[in-house]
Structure formats: structure tokens, C-alpha cells
Amino acid sequence: MSDQKATTRNPWAWIPTLYFTQGIPYVMVMSVSVMMYKNLGVSNTDIAFFTSLLYFPWFLKFAWGPFIDMFKTKRFWTISMQFLVGVALFGIALSVNTSIYWQLTLIVFALMAFASATHDIAADGFYMLSLDQSKQAAFVGVRSTFYRIATIVGSGVLVVIAGQLAPTMGFKGAWSVVFMITGAMFIILFFYHKFILPYPKEDQGTLKGKKLSGSQIFLLAGGFALFALVVYLAFLLFGFLLSLFGVGSPWNTILTTILLVVVLVILFRTFVATFVEKFEKSESKNDTLLPFIEFLKAFVIFMQKKDIWNILGFLLFFRFAEAQLVKLVQPFLLDPRTEGGLGLTTSEVGIVYGTVGIIALTAGGLIGGYVISKKGLKWWLWPMVIIMHTPDLAFVYLSHYQPTNFVLINLAVAAEQFGYGFGFTAYMMFMIMVSQGEHKTAHYAICTGIMALGMMLPGMFSGALQETIGYPRFFEWVLISTIPGFIVAGLVKIDPEFGKKKEEPAKA
């Protein structure tokens, strides 16, 4: 009875809950894990390094984004991954009470990150297929709001619950209960979306109706594996060459990655593009290669975009400062004053950062989406860049003076989070703009993958840097690290009309 399936539904019936479910696993992996490991006595160096590595599945979104474009529907992938995330949340609840919790929880967090990243690709593609461009711009603030509400629930409410339960149950028992609650909530949302999500007519895989042979599947999987191996070997080679010139970690890792991105762009714009073009023009096509060509085509089209270098620079460096800051905020609030922190309790951190901070972040995102819909992304880009980066001064102040006034601490954190939420709206709209056209789902996945890379690399070394130079100098460094964000903002070109809400024609 496919003809009876609703092709459209009121966006308010599914966009809020869809982006709530998108936010929950991300905040559990990236934020709540930091709090949990800090409570369990893990060092800042290990926390920052290993939780930053968990960005890796989000970075790899660019690689399997085309697969999701080719096979099944975005709806199918969205629903399936929600179920897997729910199972993973229960897995954390069972793992944290074991003697080898550090190893087991990291493995399950990695699996959850993989499922969550795949869900992000599908959900964002579903969003763009289900709404026209004007509605996409209008609902970007709604997306952001409910994503942030999920963040409040995760890093706020759930952290407070853990802090309240810890005195009687211990931190392991408390966090086990928290993840059980979250898993149950997620499974409920899974059943809701299975019923309520519409069936957009455009939501079809690019290979719909084509049954792949064994040789095609083998070639597709083998080609993907070979591509991954080549990228990995190139990464090792670039790292080795830079070490010969005395470039050490972490700059070695950052420069190696930039070199790798440059080489991949050049290859896809030249050699791979030529290969794909010859295949499509060939009168005697080898159908066995069709899925592999479809996979490569998404990358070729993206890499051939006008001003691709500026686009990549913006995606990688716009959040260079925030990528370092975000990994150390919670440890800074928790660490005792003798170690340079503010000495707050777990529940207090849940209030300051996970509730007040996220409310401010949400307000910034809402206002950001609203103002862009009025005058467009181009008009608001520079105000958003300034408002996003300037409030980093709040943590410079907190680390130097270590105030005890709880209200003042909340205000400082709220100011920084509001600025970040306001500015990040520009980043989201930029990715939507860049992804327009053919293969929009795969291209948005590429954008968000590069975004994750821009968060992962600086975050990996932030903990070790902080433990070496202390909190005051670290937050001063974060302030200096905002400079690349200003530079890349000045290089991108934006359509003056992009993001503006279309006015409805007046009725006669």
C-alpha cells in the first residue's frame, strides 16, 4: 500500500524530534563521555585525545555518504541507525560497571559514533529532500533549537542526575542508570519516527531498481577499501616527511592532514574526474563499474566546485578555536582551584555548562537562524564571526581570576555559548549552500565530515597542551586561535540572496 503512504507531513511533527534524536548520541559521545571519564579519574590528556578520536566516524561521513545516496532511502537509514544507537546506549550502561570499563566503553562509544554519523547523513539528506530551500532556511533555527535541547538533556539534566545519584551509588552506578534512561528514551523515539516520518517522492537511492551483481558489490567494497588504504599510507608518508624537517606533534598531524586534503582535491579534480568523464561518454560501458563510478562521481562533482580551496579552508578552520575550547570546558569547571580549575561539583557543571550554557547556545542559534532568514547569510557573516569568537575572552577571565560567584560563572559561560551558537548558524547555512545541486546528501556529508576533521585534530592535542601550560595560558592560546576563523571568513564567496526567506506573493 505504498500509494497510501504520506509523502509530506507538517514539518513541526517530525523536524523537532528528528534533530533531538540527532543531538542525543552526539552529546553522549562528545560531551557526556568527558564528564563520565573525568568523574572516573581519567586524565585531561587521555580524555581530550581519545574522545577527540571519536570524531573519526563523523569525519569518515564523506566516504560512506555516497553509499547512503546509492542504496535504500534516507528514511530507511534514519530509522535503522536510531535503533542501533539505542542498543549502543544500553551497551554503555552495561559496560561502565565492569573492571575494564575504559576499554569497553570506548569501543561501544565508537560504535555509537559510527551509527550516529550515519544517522546524521541520512537525517540531513531527508531534511533537504522533504523541504524546499526557503523552508530549509526557515527551519534551520528549529533544527538547531531541538538539537540543543537534546544537548541540555544530555550534558545538563543527565549530568545533574548522575551527580545526585553518585553519593549513594558511586559514579559507575550513577552513570549506568543515566545511560539506561537515555537508551529507553531513544528506543521510544525510534518507534515514533518509524510511524511519523513522511515518504518524500525524491527519497530514492541513485541505484534504485538496479540489482547489483556479486562482482559489482566486490568491486565497490574493494575500491572503497583500496581508497582507504591509499589515504592511510599517504597520511603516514606525509607525516614521515614532515618529521624529517623537525615538525613535531601536534603540528605534524595538522599539516599532514592539510597536505592529504590538498592531494585528494587535486586527484579528484584531474585524474579521477577524467576517468569518470571517459566512462560516462563511452558507448560500450562496463556495467560492472557503474556503482563504483556513481560513488566516485559524488566526490568529483564536489571537488570541482568553484572556489573549492576557500570552501575547504572555511570548513576546516572556522572553528579552530572552539575545537580546543570545548574539550577542556568541563574539566576546567570540575578541576580543583589548586589545579587552576573552578572546583564545581558534577551537578553544578550540569547546571552551568549543560543547562544555562546550552540554553544560551540555543538562543544564539535561534536568533542566528532568524536574522539570516531576514537579510541572508552574506549580510550576517561578519557580525556572526565577531560575535562567535570575541566571547572566548570569558574563559580567559575565569581562568585568571577563578571567581567563586556562581551567578558570575554562569553569565560568563552563557556569553561564550551564546556567541558560539549565533556564529555556528552561519557555518550550518554555509554547508547547506555548498551542498546544493546534484548529490546534495553526499555533498552535505562531505561538508560535515570535513567539519568533524576540523574539530578532531585540534581537540586531540588540547588536553596535553593544557596540562603543559596550565589553564590561563591555554585559554589565551584559544583566543589567539580565533585568527584563522577571521581569515577564512574573508575568503569565501556567498550569494547575497542565499538564506533569505522568500516572501509569499500577496493574494488578490
List the helices and strands and how they pair.
Blueprint: H1 15-39, H2 44-53, H3 56-59, H4 61-70, H5 74-95, H6 101-130, H7 133-196, H8 214-244, H9 251-269, H10 271-281, H11 290-303, H12 308-317, H13 320-334, H14 346-375, H15 377-389, H16 393-401, H17 406-434, H18 440-480, H19 483-489
Helix pairs in contact: 1-2, 1-6, 1-7, 1-13, 2-18, 4-6, 4-18, 5-6, 5-7, 6-18, 7-14, 8-9, 8-11, 9-10, 9-11, 10-11, 12-18, 12-19, 13-18, 14-15, 14-17, 15-17, 16-17, 16-18
Verbal overview:
The chain has 508 residues and is mostly helical. It folds into 2 domains: 372 residues, MFS general substrate transporter like domains (Growth Hormone, Chain: A, Up-down Bundle), CATH 1.20.1250.20; 91 residues, no CATH class. The mean pLDDT is 86.
Instruction: Estimate the global geometry from the Cα principal axes.
Output: globular
CATH class of the largest domain, please?
A: Mainly Alpha
CATH fold naming of the largest domain: Growth Hormone, Chain: A
Tell me the major beta sheet.
Answer: none
> How much helix, percentage-wise, in residues?
over 70%
CATH architectural arrangement of the largest domain: Up-down Bundle
Unreliable parts: none
Provide a concise account of the structure shown.
The protein has 508 residues and is mostly helical. The protein contains 19 helices and no strands. α9 (251-269) runs parallel beside α10 (271-281).
Record keyword descriptors for this entry.
single chain; mainly alpha; 19 helices
